[in-house]
């Protein structure tokens, strides 16, 4: 349960940071930056999950 929570928090943080940093580029820039931020959040969240489980 905690691993899903950590993953969703990381994705949400990446998404919101991407949206904020992409806002000078207009709506499409915000959207693309948010997608990139969510992808980065997914990657970081998966790495945190593996680190917590002791695999990495």
Could you provide a short overview of the structure?
88% of the residues lie in helices and 0% in strands. By secondary structure, it is mostly helical.
Q: How would you portray this structure in words?
A:
- The structure is a single chain.
- By secondary structure, the chain is mainly α.
- It is 88% helix and 0% strand.
- It contains two helices and no strands.
- It has helices at 2-22, 26-53.
- Helix 1 (2-22) runs antiparallel to helix 2 (26-53).
- The radius of gyration is 13 Å and the shape is elongated.
- The model has no long low-confidence stretch (mean pLDDT 91).
DSSP summary, beta strand count: 0
Mean pLDDT across all residues, rounded? Answer: 91
Category by helix and strand content: mainly alpha
Into which percentage range does the β-strand content fall? Answer: under 5%
Task: Give the overall silhouette.
Answer: elongated
What assembly state would you assign to the polypeptide chains in this entry? single chain
The number of helices is 2
Low-confidence stretches: none
| Largest beta-sheet characterization | none
């Amino acid at each position: 349960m905690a691993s899903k929570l950590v993953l969703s928090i990381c994705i949400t943080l990446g998404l919101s940071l991407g949206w904020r940093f992409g806002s000078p580029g207009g709506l499409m820039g915000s959207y693309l930056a948010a997608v990139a931020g969510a992808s980065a959040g997914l990657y970081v969240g998966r790495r945190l999950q593996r680190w917590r489980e002791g695999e990495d």
